């Protein structure tokens, strides 16, 4: 089936063709013809990322009257982010229609929204709480509503909006069509459907409560004390990862993100202690892929509109199974496959079975990649990147000289040496790395024998098996023995002394380099380094993949 067969207006077809939609997704192919040709309500069981916004958005645009200055469609969604995302998406579909679409949500100055409502929107996207507030101020009028959409209904209930939803449903005309979308089907949702919906058909993509079909579900067994090392190992094993690491608490989110940043990963944290502006900034960076790894709590990640996640990692499994469905549904979106990996201790392994029943899909146990596997993967990744690279034309002028200089070396030797330039640090780091699988097996064995193994169950114990990368202590260096260096990160990037020290540890793999005074300006950080080690430091920064994006150099002249 293609979009032309659905009976949609040319204006809509042109808009979605411009967005690159080639054929309707599964939910669209089911919901759009039903809404256009039948009269009943719809209960849609679908994950985010299945294309459900267009599934309800296109028929709404097709049937409401752009000339009538009344609000004819109301879309309720749980979060500000999702509201903005839906309004943005529907506006794109409505590009060629004279349609006014407004989003109203909590957490933003109401005056701006009041002003936007002066010009009555035909389509209103809202969070329930803010909508009730605006209804009480008589700024929104629901008597002409012909479509009411409850999007991510299970999330709205999780967030305590049940009473608000009931109030809103009561205030809209009985003649409306109600469309309810939810990833899962708890009893409360079935109750809403029973009380407020007429002739509803249930349309589900995949089976009820099933996680997105194109997601592969894995778990790795870890000791509590090596959980962070296992995470790092996985991140190293997937060098092109673009994913979310889910944590259970804000504190855990902060700790994991901070450690990853210190260890040189392109990661940041998203949690409820951040201001709205900070959250927006992190989400934006992640959306634009300027950030590779987002460490987040479930609540903060709600409504984050990001497609094409390659991985979802559960640093800890959530307490309830439906949250697992939501988390893993963020990968494996429209026509793409994804990987969900849960880190579990032998004791937590029991939580896997009940989740398998809910998602109706088995988990596969995955071995923690060995150091050798990581090196191999990174090497192939680099070779592939090299093959796809467009070399800068400016290189051409140096080529004859370089070719002349290398003329006596054979091809293999040249390749070997260029790879060594990039990889010696990584090989060194992983040379003595521990088999993390063996260490957890050892723990299982000793617990079976009734012995209490060291560190078992003790959160945050220091029993790490990876080569230790403890934080460097600042050492006092005599100024006469130092040189001042500068790096292209500063306060504006959230750079602090401990991040600089962590970065140096990570890139050089050598904790004995003495660092003196550190001064941080908005865009740069200046620091004193033992003169004898400057060359080593600069060389490490120019050859180690962990130093990607960092530029380091000597500060000439005045200190
Ligand atoms: P949604 O589930 O509505 O949040 O949609 C997820 C993403 O898929 C959005 O970025 C849409 O623009 C995109 N999308 C929706 N329908 C299609 C389609 N038929 N083909 C390709 N992409 C789509």
Top keywords for this entry?
559 residues; seven-stranded parallel sheet; binds adenosine monophosphate
Provide an overview of this structure.
Helix content is 41%, strand content 15%. About 6% of the residues have low confidence. It is of the alpha/beta class and 559 residues long. Strands 3-4-2-5-6-1-7 form a seven-stranded parallel beta sheet, with helices on both faces. Strands 10-11-9-12-13-8-14 form a seven-stranded parallel beta sheet, sandwiched between helices. Strands 16-17-15-18 form a four-stranded antiparallel beta sheet, covered by helices on one side. 39% of the residues are buried. Bound molecules: adenosine monophosphate. The site of adenosine monophosphate has 14 residues, from helix 3. Adenosine monophosphate (AMP) binds next to helix 3.
TL;DR of this structure?
41% of the residues lie in helices and 15% in strands.
List the helices and strands and how they pair.
Layout: H1 10-18, H2 26-37, E1 42-45, H3 52-63, E2 73-76, H4 80-93, E3 101-104, H5 110-118, E4 123-126, H6 128-136, E5 147-150, H7 153-158, H8 162-171, E6 177-182, H9 187-196, E7 201-204, E8 215-221, H10 227-237, E9 243-246, H11 250-262, E10 267-270, H12 276-287, E11 293-296, H13 298-301, E12 311-314, H14 321-328, E13 338-344, H15 352-359, E14 364-365, H16 371-388, H17 399-405, H18 411-431, H19 436-448, E15 482-487, H20 497-508, E16 515-520, E17 525-530, H21 534-543, E18 552-554
Parallel strand pairs: 1-6, 1-7, 2-4, 2-5, 3-4, 5-6, 8-13, 8-14, 9-11, 9-12, 10-11, 12-13
Antiparallel strand pairs: 15-17, 15-18, 16-17
Helix pairs in contact: 2-3, 3-4, 6-8, 10-16, 14-15, 16-18
The structure holds adenosine monophosphate.
The site of adenosine monophosphate has 14 residues, from helix 3.
């Amino acid at each position: 089936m293609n979009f032309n067969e659905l009976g949609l207006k040319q204006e809509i077809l042109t808009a979605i063709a411009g967005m690159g939609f080639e054929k309707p997704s599964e939910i669209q192919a089911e919901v759009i013809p039903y809404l256009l040709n039948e009269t009943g309500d719809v209960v849609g069981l679908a994950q985010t990322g299945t294309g459900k916004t267009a599934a309800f958005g296109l028929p709404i645009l097709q049937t409401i009257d752009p000339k009538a200055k009344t609000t004819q469609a109301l879309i309720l969604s749980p979060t500000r982010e999702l509201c903005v995302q839906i309004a943005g998406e529907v506006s794109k579909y409505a590009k060629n229609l004279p349609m006014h679409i407004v989003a109203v949500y909590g957490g933003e100055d109401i005056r701006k929204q009041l002003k936007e409502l002066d010009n009555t929107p035909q389509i209103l996207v809202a969070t329930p709480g803010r909508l009730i507030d605006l209804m009480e101020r008589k700024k929104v009028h629901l008597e002409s509503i012909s479509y009411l959409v409850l999007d991510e209904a299970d999330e709205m209930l999780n967030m305590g909006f049940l009473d608000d939803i009931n109030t809103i449903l009561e205030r809209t005309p009985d003649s409306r069509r109600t469309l309810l979308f939810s990833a899962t089907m708890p009893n409360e949702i079935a109750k809403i459907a029973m009380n407020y919906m007429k002739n509803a058909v249930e349309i589900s993509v995949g089976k009820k409560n099933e996680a997105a079909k194109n997601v592969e579900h894995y778990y790795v067994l870890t000791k509590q004390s090596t959980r962070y090392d296992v995470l790092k190992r996985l991140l190293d094993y997937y060098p092109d990862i673009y994913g979310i690491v889910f944590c259970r608490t804000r504190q855990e989110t902060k700790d994991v993100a901070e450690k990853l940043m210190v260890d040189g990963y392109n990661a940041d944290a998203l949690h409820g202690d951040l201001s709205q502006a900070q959250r927006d900034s992190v989400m934006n960076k992640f959306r634009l892929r300027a950030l590779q790894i987002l460490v987040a709590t479930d609540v903060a990640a709600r409504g984050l509109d990001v497609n094409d996640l390659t991985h979802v990692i559960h640093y800890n499994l959530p307490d309830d199974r439906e949250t697992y469905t939501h988390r893993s549904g963020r990968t494996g979106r429209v026509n793409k496959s994804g990987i969900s990996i849960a880190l579990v201790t032998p004791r937590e392994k029991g939580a896997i079975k009940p989740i398998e029943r809910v998602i109706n899909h088995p988990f596969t146990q995955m071995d923690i990649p060995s150091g050798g596997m990581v090196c191999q993967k990174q090497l192939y990744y680099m070779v592939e990147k090299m093959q796809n690279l467009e070399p800068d034309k400016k290189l051409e002028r140096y080529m004859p000289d370089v070719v002349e200089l290398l003329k006596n070396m054979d091809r293999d030797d040249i390749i070997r040496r260029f790879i060594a330039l990039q990889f010696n640090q990584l090989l060194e780091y992983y040379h003595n790395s521990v088999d993390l699988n063996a260490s957890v097996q050892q723990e299982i064995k000793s617990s079976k024998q009734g012995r209490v193994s060291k560190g078992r169950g003790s959160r945050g114990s220091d029993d790490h098996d990876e080569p230790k990368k403890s934080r460097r202590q600042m050492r006092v260096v005599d100024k006469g023995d130092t040189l001042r260096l500068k790096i292209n990160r500063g306060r504006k990037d959230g750079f602090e002394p401990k991040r600089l020290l962590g970065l140096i540890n990570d890139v050089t793999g050598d904790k004995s380099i003495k660092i003196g005074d550190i001064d941080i300006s908005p865009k740069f950080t200046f620091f004193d380094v033992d003169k004898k080690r400057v060359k080593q430091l600069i060389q490490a920064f120019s050859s180690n993949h962990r130093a990607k994006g960092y530029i380091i150099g000597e500060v000439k002249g005045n200190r």
